[in-house]
Write a structure and sequence with these properties.
By secondary structure, the chain is mainly alpha-helical. About 95% of the residues lie in helices and about 0% in strands. It is built from 3 helices and no strands. The radius of gyration is 30 Å and the shape is elongated.
Length: about 100
């Protein structure tokens, strides 16, 4: 019976060791993947930042102004929709 108890204890110890090893391996993989994701996000953010810096905002403003003049009804509808959505979002944030 002592051998059975020893065998069970040894088996339990081996299982615990495998769990610990798996946890360490997964932890390292998660950290590595998180680092890769962070690098990708940094690259995308740099690309967006550069694109914003290169944008000719006068052209953007002229395009928006031209669209509003050509489509006053649609522009008003868009403005109302955006205003409503922002109002709903901001009102709910204040309730927290």
């Amino acid at each position: 019976m002592a051998n059975e108890t020893g065998s069970i204890t040894d088996a339990a110890k081996r299982v615990e060791d495998r769990i610990d090893a798996t946890r360490e391996t997964l932890g390292a993989r998660v950290k590595e993947r998180a680092g890769q994701v962070a690098d990708t996000v940094k690259e995308k953010a740099a690309t967006v930042r550069d694109k914003i810096r290169q944008t000719d905002w006068d052209d953007v403003m002229n395009n928006v102004t031209g669209y509003v003049r050509d489509n006053p009804g649609k522009s008003l509808g868009i403005a109302l929709g955006v205003g409503f959505a922002l109002g709903v979002l901001l009102r709910h944030r204040g309730d927290d």
